[in-house]
Amino acid sequence: MSDPRLQKMQKMAQRLHETGTVDVLTMRKIDALAMQDQLEVMSARQIKELRAKQGISQGVLAVALNMSAESVKKWEQGKSQPHGAALRLLKLIDRNGIAAVL
């Protein structure tokens, strides 16, 4: 799911960073963008299963993610998808349980 253009940009920036043309802060931002692009999406079914496995309501999951219950509902209905920090937290909950974020 990774965009090859972003990968090329990251490699080019790394070479420029090694020559001193790109500073550390800019390189970190580019690396973060590339990492975010590599996160796999979670389907509506996966989010429902995660919540069921943890034994929590949509409201509790929303609080844990600092999101609205309406957002969680839309994810589970397939009307939208989590991204950014919410997706990272969902992956963390999936790996380590809800206690990891509470």
TrEMBL record:
It comes from the Bacteria. The keyword Ribosomal protein does not apply. SMART domains: HTH_XRE. Gene3D superfamilies: lambda repressor-like DNA-binding domains. SUPFAM superfamilies: lambda repressor-like DNA-binding domains. Residues 47-82 form the HTH cro/C1-type domain. One of its GO terms (molecular function) is DNA binding. CDD domains: HTH_XRE. The keyword Transcription applies. It holds the Pfam family HTH_31. Keywords: DNA-binding, Transcription, Transcription regulation. This is Transcriptional regulator.
